[in-house]
Amino acid sequence: MLAIYSVSEISKYIKGLMEGDGFLAGVWVKGEVSNFTLHSSGHMYFSLKDKFSRLKSVMFRSSNARLKFIPSDGMAVFAYGAIGMYEKSGDVQLYVEEMMPVGTGSLYMAFLQLKEKLDKEGLFSLANKRELPCFPKTVAVITSPTGAAVRDVITVIKRRAPNVMILVVPALVQGDNAPESIIRCLDLVNRAGFIDVVIVGRGGGSIEELMAFNDEGVARAIAGCKIPVISAVGHETDFTIADFVADRRAATPSAAAEMAVPDTSGLEKALTQLSLRLKGSITSIISDNRGRLQTLTRSHVLRFPMELTRDHRQRLSSSIDKLYTLAINMLSVKREDFRVLVGRLEGLSPLETLARGYGLIRRLSDMSAIHRIDEVRSGEDLEVVLYDGSFTASVKTIREEIIGGEGR
Description:
By secondary structure, the chain is α/β, with parallel strands linked by helices. The protein is 43% helix and 21% strand.
């Protein structure tokens, strides 16, 4: 059966093919700008052409905000972006992300290649970035001693932190000898031993003028510096290899100075405010506690503290009286019980028996009691214990008798 497709389906199919093509996803195109329009939205619409073809192009505001120039008809440019299709019109066009005049193309290509190389080596890694000191004592500035950049840095630092020492290290920042000069200054600062933070930079310029800071040797010297480095090259839209390698990137030299030192006047104001707040808080706490103390000192409880114990003392006194009475009664009962027991014991006492005319006979040798007549020997001396004393007797005659019966 014959398949029939809508225009939208064909457009989507072609767009899908183009978006899946790796080559078209990121490509550099050289051409001449024509039909250039800067829309009120900020987007740029134009065509790139050569002798044989024309390619519609668009550069959205988010991308063209970084451009250092305004394209115009007839200008030869290098443009980087992705090839895609605008479904509504069916136009194939280049979605431009970066663009530069043809004259700067070779330098920019070298910049991109070096950037990719150092990035792969890890020189841009955030893990290698060092923290800037909060309160540096000495700041080294590696730049041209006659440029506007050094004046801006000195002015800002003196305004923000007058007590910080500024060490200007003169360096060439443009020309063939500039990279070697910057590397030498970095080595000097690194070996000084008293520098807390380093600012490396210059004022804005063309890509040719900033090439010293796109040098591989300078990049490696910054990465190998033991002291935190702030890169301050050009204006806010300028980016160099030094910016990516440094511990911090400042948009301008003045911004680098603000980044390097704290605003001491602002800190003093903040400390003053904190001190006032602390003093106010302490005063408020003391006032509140003083009020509470005055309230407590006027209270009836603290003025007459013994009244709190009066009822307790009265209950305690009553309890003591009850306890004393209970103890007396208990002792009286126990004393009577004791008397009864003593009477019983006295009735069982051998002394009572002796008092009725009986005696206790015991052997003198071991004081053992004599219970039976067969325990007595003739001539033996015995002790006879009576109720009121004792005496010694000698056995002369032994006679056995049976109580209630006849004797032998």
